[in-house]
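TOKENISED FOLD:
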Amino acid sequence: MTSTNSANTNAQPTFPNSYAEAQKIGVFRAFSKTPVLALDSYINGGKAVSTPSGKIEIYSLSMAQKGKDWIFNPNVKGDYITAIPMYQPTWDGYEDEDTKDDYPLQLAGYHTKGRTHSSYHNVPWLREAAEDAVWMNPTDALGRGLRSGDKVQMWNERGTVELPVRITPRVAPGVVALGQGAWYQPDIARIGRSGHPIDVGGCINTLTRYQPSPLAKGNPQHTNRVQIVKA
């Protein structure tokens, strides 16, 4: 956390020099005195960027080539790549009629301030400071008879998660939100509506489809459809 290394001291001379000093300060903040402008060398220096034209491009030739050459599953919604930025309907999305009736809520994952991905989830006071709860709009909560702090079960065909609910207008009606990175903790003595042991750890991957995203081949945990009831 702190260091007396000369390189660090030179780069940030106001950085605490000891653990005791860092504890006394509490939160350390530093601000750059030099404004930072993205793509400054291109905008003010005329230096080309790494595109075929050397300019900022809306149409991506490399993306177009990947969309043409890569193998995609024609039976999976949204499993394709486009050469220009565009909205594309995908599985478990708003337009997914196959799941809307059984799972009417759109679950969005987000990065919580309580950990870095799954790191530090094992620190109890961090979990106390940044509660792992599913956020829900008051309109959706009213129809389900829910209040903030109630224990709920959230499920789809992949799994069931049991955790507290936090009622807030900061999410839109029809949408719920859960921080990603919580550790999977199955209660093998209880089987949820999905037919699998109930996850009491609050892990969003419990509800996420095992289908990589088209370009990054990453975890699509920010798009899920679920149902929620009081536990």
User: Anything to note?
Assistant: DSSP finds seven helices and eight strands in the chain. The longest helix spans residues 61-69.
